[in-house]
Amino acid sequence: MIAFPSFYNEWRHVFKLDPDREISDExxxxxxxxxxxxxxxxxxxxxxxxxxxxxxxxxxxxxVPCALELTDPECAVxxxxxxxxxxxxxxxxxxxxxxHQTSAIEEFGAFLPWDSVAGEAYxxxxxxxxxxxxxxxxxxxxxxxxxxxxQLADRLWRVPVVYLEYSGxxxxxKLVRKVRGELRQARLFYGGGIRTxxxxxxxxxxxxxxxxxxxxxxxxxxxxxxxxxxxxxVKEQDHVF
Length: 241
Ligand SMILES: CC(C)=CCC/C(C)=C/CC/C(C)=C/CC/C(C)=C/CC/C(C)=C/CC/C(C)=C/CC/C(C)=C/COP(=O)(O)OP(=O)(O)O
Ligand SMILES: O=P(O)(O)OC[C@@H](O)CO
Ligand SMILES: [Mg+2]
Prior knowledge:
Blueprint: E1 13-17, H1 25-32, E2 38-41, H2 49-59, E3 66-69, E4 82-88, H3 99-108, E5 117-124, H4 130-135, H5 143-156, E6 161-165, H6 173-181, E7 187-191, H7 197-206, E8 209-212, H8 215-218, H9 220-231
Parallel strand pairs: 1-2, 1-8, 2-3, 3-4, 4-5, 5-6, 6-7, 7-8
The structure holds the ligand CC(C)=CCC/C(C)=C/CC/C(C)=C/CC/C(C)=C/CC/C(C)=C/CC/C(C)=C/CC/C(C)=C/COP(=O)(O)OP(=O)(O)O, SN-glycerol-1-phosphate (1GP) and magnesium ion.
The site of the ligand CC(C)=CCC/C(C)=C/CC/C(C)=C/CC/C(C)=C/CC/C(C)=C/CC/C(C)=C/CC/C(C)=C/COP(=O)(O)OP(=O)(O)O has 35 residues, from β4, α3 and α4.
């Protein structure tokens, strides 16, 4: 029997680092030694094999687990602890839901370390974000539609991660709670616009895993403060069956 991937199951707080953005050695050390549960490497644009290898090599000076979000087969660098493959549930063009992923697997699937690979069912909700632009996501969906996307991914497709993505803007925590409350096996990742400890705490109460990205580059001290805020927050309710 093939083991179900679970390298991310205990993660509460994650820092997302973008290979296309510069980070000093000092800042990277602070991020890696912050007590975060993992570093997720990924970006919606400008990610190359070279900048991904370079970032991985620098992160490997530290003990923190490190996973890659695969957004282009060209950037599939070996040596990460795990790999995520995003699928955008609310993409207008199904290429971003299953098209690009299927083509990549058809061509390169034999080289994937499948036991360390997990799908992510993205629901992209900030129309201004790069992920929304790249995938042509329909961000004007109703709450009930977002909940239904989560249920479909979780209950029909058994995708292990549902990712509510507000990249660049702090999202609606009521909706995050609602979507998570309807998941039976998937973990709910939340990411977007976390700039303060209070926002991090709120997100930590609503989601299983909280991802902080852009703040690392814009306000490192505030970003570092989110680790403790998430880790000491208590999730409000657990999965309802
Ligand atoms: C590991 C290994 C050795 C493998 C070798 C074999 C191999 C090449 C296998 C291929 C694997 C595979 C199936 C790849 C899939 C590639 C693919 C095209 C996936 C589609 C990804 C997708 C849906 C992209 C749309 C945009 C999106 C949802 C991106 C993810 C989220 C993200 C990174 C958001 C943050 O972006 P950022 O740039 O920070 O945005 P802001 O400007 O808002 O900050
Ligand atoms: O960059 P921010 O806005 O923190 O969002 C985090 C992450 O969800 C991006 O994919
Ligand atoms: Mg970003």
